[in-house]
Amino acid sequence: TTARERLERLLRRLLVDASQWAAVFAAVVAVVGTDAGEDVVDLCHSVWASRESLRIASTLSPSRRHDVIMPQYMATLAHNLFATSLAYFWSDIAFITLQRARGRSPHLWAGRLIHHIIQTVANGPVLLIGPGRAQRVMS
């Protein structure tokens, strides 16, 4: 596949995942309110991402080159972790933007925006790496 096709597929994936996070947030907010809803969904994302990270890290093994090799199946899971987390961050950016446009200031909104921008810049390139990313994920 071409770089453009990979980018288009990734963007579609991020939009679908961001929509799913937004739906979860809306459901949680309907039950506990906006402020608590932000915290509950953020905690859910943190617990899930930590669990997935530990699961992936447990499969890493050293190589002769003194770098770390990740099994093929875990490289796919790592890619999914980065993509789903990035989509969560983008859905939160959309939420913050909508709230600010309505004159509201969500809890720690400026810090969250900075964090999400940093995560997008840091993780975006990892998601755009082409074929072969599974052979040597870390070096």
Major sheet: size, sense and barrel closure? 2 strands, antiparallel
Strand percent estimate: under 5%
**Low-confidence blocks of residues:** 134-139
Number of helices: 4
The whole-number mean of residue pLDDT values reads 86
Report the radius of gyration as a whole number of Å: 17 Å
Report the span from N to C terminus. Answer: 25 Å
Descriptors:
single chain, disordered C terminus, mainly alpha, globular, 4 helices, two-stranded antiparallel ribbon, 139 residues
Description:
The protein is mainly alpha-helical and 139 residues long. It has a two-stranded antiparallel ribbon. The chain is built from 4 helices and 2 strands; from the N terminus they run H-H-E-E-H-H. The longest helix has 30 residues, at 3-32.
